[in-house]
Amino acid sequence: MKHFKKPFTQQEAIPESAIADAVEVMRTGRLHRYNALEGEQTPTELLELEFAEYLGVPYCLAVTSGGYALQIAMRAAGVESGDKILCNAFTLAPVPGAIHNTGAVPILVEADDDYCIDLDDLEAKAKASGAKFFMLSHMRGHIADMDRIMDICDEYELFLIEDCAHTMGAKWNGKNSGTFGDIACFSNQTYKHINSGEGGFLTSEDPEIIAKAIMYSGSYMLFERHLAAPPKEVFEQIRFETPNFSGRMDNLRAAILRPQLKDIKRQCDRWNERYCILEKGFRLSDAIHIPERSEKEQFVASSIQFSVLNFNREQIAQFQQKCSERGVMLKWFGGAEPTGYTSRYDSWKYIDDMPKLSKTEKILETLMDMRIPLTFDLDDCQLIAEIVVEEADAIA
Question: Low-confidence residues of the chain, pLDDT below 50?
């Protein structure tokens, strides 16, 4: 019986060029983004400019985490305590956590069979709730029909915040993920598409929104030191009216990220190459279901999700255990208790009046999730697929 022996939590090493850049920053001692010599452009300032150019937007702010970006995105959008915010029920805990942090109220929207947000339920809840804000998570890199989403946003005048933690480098119908909404938020946490341990970006085409976000991030009165920002005139009143929530990215993390950003296209292609081997292998089992993805979705698959539709809870637990014994780590979104990074919407007990979302529960009940680290080569992916299929078929 074959076993897989590589860890699922081991990322690739930081590139040597990024290590050299980080060491240079440490030698200067100027880690704080505003600690610079006269006329010097810091790594953080340059990273913001480079990410804005990469995404095709005018403004970018680098911050301490994707979750922090979500929080100040809502505040910059004008969210106040008690406001209703539509969001995915199938997402990760930092999303409802960010909403809760602002005092707003999450209106959870069902998932659909493709692991995306259910657009019929979204439209119904947009109409019934009167919400004016929508935080859309492209959960695990699955992009919903953005054409219909934008129609819904237009019809109900929804302010759209895109959570692109899992879609850096992805597109819908040729348009970059993160360029549909009023604000987009990205993550650079270790398991995302560029890695600084923690970190994130907030992007927008609205000068007032990004000016507020810059002030919220803790720029003091050094906002003119931002290269991917509007002119100082935009800050004239905003600088006095916006509190400092200190969440700046530092130059050390920016130095680590800049070479990775330059290489992101190649890295995204490598993830998809591995994903395609896994997907093709998994489809050999009648017990495993993987939804077909739209031709309009140019995804980046740094993880893979599939359903074991005809397994009961005991069989799923057995399947997960058998794969684990052979070295393949699968996460299960249908578990009764939160485990590691994985939690189900009804475990977020801080949400008042928790709804019953039967469709989402049914989908999560059989939904499995697996990381695809780039430390796995193509033969590794073939072996993983064989192990998963063998164990699924044995139980089926």
Answer: none
The CA-CA-CA angle for residues 93, 95, 96, to 5°, reads: 75
- For residue 353, the model assigns a pLDDT of 86
At 108, is the secondary structure helix, strand, or coil? strand
pLDDT score, position 262: 98
Q: Which residues contact 208 (CB under 8 A, 6 or more apart)?
A: 230, 234, 238
Residue 158 sits in the same domain as residue 214: yes
Q: Is 334 exposed, middle or buried (0-12, 13-18, 19+ CB in 10 A)?
A: buried
pTM surpassing 0.85?
yes
Domains of the chain: total: 2
Residues in the chain: 396
Boundary (domain end) residue, out of 236, 262, 288: 262
Q: What is the C-alpha separation between 47 and 62, in angstroms, rounded?
A: 8
Contact 58, 228 (CB under 8 A): yes
Q: CA–CA separation, 194 vs 264, rounded Å?
A: 7
Give pairs for 77-84: CB < 8 Å, separation 24+: 77/133, 77/159, 77/161, 77/182, 77/183, 77/209, 78/159, 79/104, 79/133, 80/104, 83/131, 83/132, 83/133, 84/129, 84/130, 84/131, 84/132, 84/133
Q: What is the pLDDT of residues 248-293, one digit of tens each?
A: 999 999 999 999 999 999 999 999 999 999 999 999 999 999 999 9
For residues 21 and 121, state if they share a domain.
Answer: yes
Task: Return the H-helix or E-strand segment holding 105.
Answer: strand 105-109
Domain finish residue from 262, 283, 311? 262
